[in-house]
Amino acid sequence: MLVAAPRGYCAGVDRAVVAVERALELYGPPVYVRKEIVHNRHVVTTLAARGAVFVDEVDDVPPGARVVFSAHGVSPAVRAQAAARDLRTIDATCPLVTKVHKEAVRFADQGLDILLIGHPGHEEVEGTQGEAPDHVQVVPSPDVVDQVRVRDPDKVIWISQTTLSVDETTETVRRLRERFPNLADPPSDDICYATQNRQVAVKAMAPRCDVVVVVGSANSSNSVRLVEVAREAGARAYRVDTAAEVDPAWLDGATTVGVTSGASVPDVLVSELLEVLAGHGYTAVEEVRTTTESLRFALPHELRDSRLSDSGRDTCPEP
Questions:
Q1: Which of 44, 123, 172, 216 is close enough to 72 for a disulfide, judged by CB 3.0 to 4.6 Å?
Q2: Per-residue pLDDT averaged across 200-210, rounded?
């Protein structure tokens, strides 16, 4: 059995989950959270059992209450709605998502049409588009490039959702550049380091596997991408929320099974999967590591309290 590394929690997810835990510790329940703090069913269920209350919109939060914005970010309109309700906000937006938001604002101020490569309806995409709605249009795939309309083909730039497949983004940009030869690139890659690292690890592991099992929820974009990457590398690949969802038929004829997990998945779920697979005879474990991650983000400023320091996780500055 091969286990990909890096896998599981990234720095932005760790920061967001700890933010809710710290808020509950500091203020006691209920602490409201707009949307899922991260896209993982186990994490949301666990936090809800501790007193977090997940809501769809800030209008569902009682006036004056405390609300956490999820790792995926929110638009200025949502922030204004929260202020109108006198909500005490804690912003757990991943700093890498915040970087993309700032890019959108800056490019809009320069009068550029912004082509946001991403999935319509995803919270991150909605938040980024909301920063400059008159300038941003979403391009979900290479297949819709021909439908894109801009005001000036010489004043166009692309940005992307942070959790996409690197290969998918590359192809969309290639097609966009065929239509708009002067398409500008953002100053840095928007796809987050964790998304890239997990995909690279799967690309290294999957060719050696008959089957790859990805732990992650269905609404986790980066987890779904890992399944696609594994299949493109030649393995049969499946996604599960928990080990209980593994179908033994998937393992028929499989000599080598690979395991990985999305960036919002706690490692306990991977450990449980390894136990289940060991019960099917896959007891020897080899880690396939392509890089080591050390990045950490400071907690939201509302929660930085030296009296409650937790392994230094609230002492590292954001990039």
A1: 123
A2: 98
Query: Residue 30 contacts by C-beta under 8 Å, 6 or more apart in sequence?
Result: 51, 52, 53, 65
* 3-state DSSP assignment of residue 56: coil
3-state secondary structure of 217: coil
Token pair recorded at residue 35: 């949307």
Q: What is the mean pLDDT of residues 254-264?
A: 98
Task: Name the CA radius of gyration of the chain, rounded.
Answer: 20
pTM reported for the whole predicted model:
0.91
State the burial class of residue 35 (Cβ atoms within 10 Å of its Cβ: 0-12, 13-18, 19+). buried
3-state secondary structure of 74: coil
CA distance 300 to 318: 10
Annotated catalytic residues are 124
CB 78 within 8 A of CB 133: no
Element (H, E) at 278: helix 267-279
Q: What angle do CA 221, 46, 27 make, to 5 degrees?
A: 110
The Cα–Cα gap between 193 and 294 comes to 11
